[in-house]
# Entry
Amino acid sequence: MNTESRSSLSSRSAAPAFDLVLFGGTGDLAMRKLLPALYRRFMDGLIPADARILGVARSELSCEAFVTKVEAKCRQYLGDAFKDDVWTGFSALLGYVKVDATHAQDYQALSHALAGRADIVRIFFLSTGPDLFAAICRELSAAGIVTPTSRIMLEKPLGEDGESANRINDTVGAIARESQIYRIDHYLGKETVQNLLALRFGNALFEPLWRRGQIRHVQITVAEQLGVESRGDFYDRTGALRDMVQNHLLQLLCILAMEPPANSSADAVRDEKLKVLRALRPIGEADALLKTARGQYRSGVVGADRTVGYREEAGVDPESRTETFVAIKAEIDTWRWAGVPFYLRTGKRLQRAIGEIVITFEAVPHSIFSGPFNADPPNRLVIQLQPDESITLRILAKAPGEAMRLRPVDLSLDLGESFKARPLEAYERLLGDAIQGNLTLFMRRDEVEAAWKWIDPIREAWDADHDGPRPYAAGSWGPTTSSSLIARDGFTWYDETF
Ligand code: NAP
# Structure
């Protein structure tokens, strides 16, 4: 039994005192997401006044200069939520320690800053490139500042294949037990994704339908209008399969497809997700071209803007073969899901920015409403994750008038409107859970390994394919091979049905 993970999906209680050491504290992720998320938790009374948040980076910065930088970024990213009186309290928790992660002697300053507080929760958030994880872990351990109550939070990417992920996991595993390691997939921190758990396991309504025989197919789409922005160099070494599918899309798939866990404890939920990953039918060289489609955007028009092609982006190799779009037909070899395809799709510079799960149910076994007007589509459950959070059940109803004509109508639920409460940002939730010691929304090592085990052979099959990713115009829905992939089974992508 894991004594450090709390068995609840709730994280809204006040936290005990803690020290949060934020490696990469001056970086983009820290300034744009992590520190504003901590500010919000403080504003909500969830961070005690004796907590401390220590930014750590190589830059020579005084504590005052760091605080000034954080203030500017919090003002920028929090907008109206920034309040001067809240800031006064929050800024008193902030500190800065200059540490070059690779210089052993620099850790003395960190050790000094943490002295006398070894008995409280100590969190090391590694928001640096993964190439620094080994040095940080080695030096933290050598400096003797990893206490039994310490927790290590790791940002993605957790490796670029199974082998490199194992190296990272071994490195961190050498200084902390699995129950002290919080591997972030920030999708799991999204309210909408947790709502999937609520929808499936808080309502008796769906469970009898949630299986083969009732569900025909499932589509999971995470589409971006954005290109690679300022991260061309990183993205060109990574690609959509590693950046999005290995983690976010597979986590969504797990939550949709897993068996009901016995309770909401971290290991009960993660055991069930792991079983889904292990039941994924392997895709290799023999069938990768049939079951996957990859693309790379060319110039085009996105929204109202003319945009350049991927190979013209800063930091990208002009002859790059990196995919900016992936579609995959995933199959889960279990009694529940045999014969039900799960189509995964993600890409950059697509027509719309949307995160959406579409569950298409089987048609009625025999229609009593025959005739030319009644060849309507089957029931669908559409769960929109972003930009807005909504759940829509499409049913058929009789259109007014004398003739018996069936037409689709939507039962729609706008969750933002229904609750009228501010949804938590993903990092607010995840930082809160780590502070509270709740591991449910973090990935366990065996999950990461199982995900790479499925992804690596796809990558290898692509490497052996001389044609490379197929071009698609920015502002479209990806290459034509994506439509063919799903059309081979007699289906279409949901957005193509309008
Ligand atoms: P970034 O803006 O480049 O920041 C990197 C941070 O690491 C800076 O604070 C930098 O500070 C510090 N750093 C670099 N070398 C160091 C060293 N030798 N010793 C100590 N500190 C060092 O990167 P980022 O965008 O914040 O991303 C951080 C990590 O999160 C990356 O692995 C990224 O892939 C991942 N991530 C980022 C995002 C995002 O939205 N940005 C989203 C998901 C995941 P100094 O320059 O002062 O040393």
In short: The radius of gyration is 24 Å. Residues 212 and 337 are 5 Å apart (CA to CA). The pocket of NAP is lined by residues 24-30, 57-59, 99-102, 127-130, 132, 155-157 (CB under 6 Å).
